[in-house]
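My main concern about presentation is that the manuscript never shows what a single data entry looks like. For the editor and my fellow referees, an illustration may be useful. For illustration, here is how one protein appears when written out as sequence plus structure tokens:

***
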Amino acid sequence: MTVFDVRKHDFLARIGNLRISEDTVISTPAVCETEELFPSLKKRAFSNMPLSAPASDAEKYVVAGEEPSAVHPKTDASADASVYLFANWNNTLDDSKRFLETYEEIFAKIRPDAARYAPASALPSNVAMLIYCGFDLFDYTAVDLASVQGKFCLPEGEFDASWMDKGVCCCEGCKNHDLKLHNRLALEREIAAAHLWIERGQMREFVENRCRLHAPQVELLRRIDKSEAFDAALPAVRSSRFMANAGESIYRREIDLFEERLTSRYHPPRNDVCVLLPCASRKPYSLSRSHQMFVRVVDSRAHEVIVTSPLGIVPRELELVYPAGHYDVPVTGFWDAEEQRVLIKRVSAYLAAHKYERIICHLDGGAKEVVLAAAKALNIPLEITCNDERPLSQESLRALNNALEGSHRMKNDFIHGTLLWQFGCEVDTKGLVVKGRYPQVKVLLKKQQLFTTDPATGLIRPTHEGWERISGYRITISPGFIPQGDILAPGVAECDSRIREGDEVFVVGENYAATGKAVMSASEMLASNRGVAVKVRKTRK
């Protein structure tokens, strides 16, 4: 029986194991001679029904059952399939709007624990995008057709066969002047590269790089960023670097989700004085030389909020949390009009949700322009402490110190702020003691440990005692089921719908409790028949 196990997610992209038989296991994403894997494909008729076919034809001819099970936007997907066949998908690749609309329609119907096969679609120039969109299995049909047509395939596109003699590739196919072999090897190399970037948790960065020479792919990436259909597949946090090197980086949905929590869950520790500060290349910001100077001058007399691109707003308490503590961006000091438009919206949303009595703008360049525009739109007065000087100049720092004269000091409680953002619930942190070296600390009440920080993601990891102070983010396992290790998806009976991959969760059952990290979203846990749902850290029976 064919079985597919997902080993790692990176948004919709996945690494998995497709077991065809006891002796045949394929690590995906992969390109294969699929007719050898699935002999029934040679005998099956009408499985390549056009995507535009009406429901009457699709229901008549697209019959689910034999692996791989054909899917169509006008029919229901097979409930028991281990591999789905997306016939005629190659006809959508140059139409990003149709691609996404069709995919959203099918994606809502298919099982998350099944492989997705796109026949006759993969070329070195598009397979990275297909993998990013969640496809796992490919064949050689498209590259073999390109060979017949005399096309030399590279990740940058398809070129005349004469390019084989220009020295751009040194594969065995080029050495032997074998166009078909070169094209096949080029496809295999691109899939292998995608596999590595998924392992790194940076498939998005790889796709941003690859799509630059293909307008329909750039269009598709932008449409995906505007779609909310795949939000559950986005991890709550990552430990990998967030490389904001492309114009599309500012629209990544994970930034929107980070900022949305700032207005819907989080609230500042004080609302009397806010200081808006520039970002720093070093993360977390407070470890940088510039922010150590800012912290000394502010001296806990105001709430420190960082204004940055591509995120928008980062309160000091959340500087560790992904993506605030993980992003790298080219620093020029210039923010273009589109960048400013997006950031003005994010800054305005934050300042509208959290009304401070005083707002001190200690910024210059594009960040200052963004805040001035946001304040004007909201009719909020600003106190400017950087005029013609840079924020780190002695004159600017002196002006900042003078503006804060007389303000009372208040300790920055990053545990309280992070818990608000992370779990959306108010936790009383009075009397708690923070020990350790920032950013890796533990939080105790007397001698009892309640929380630790995860320096890789910035999240708070509650102990069993810590979870007693937190509501939500719980997973209930099936009655009578006592896990011996990690929690598998079939054992999940109920779970908080807000859970996404990377969230800290608490697992409860009959005579069982465990702390751990979600490996799947809530919807995937409930819909999957296999796979690890929670990596368990500590159990109590």
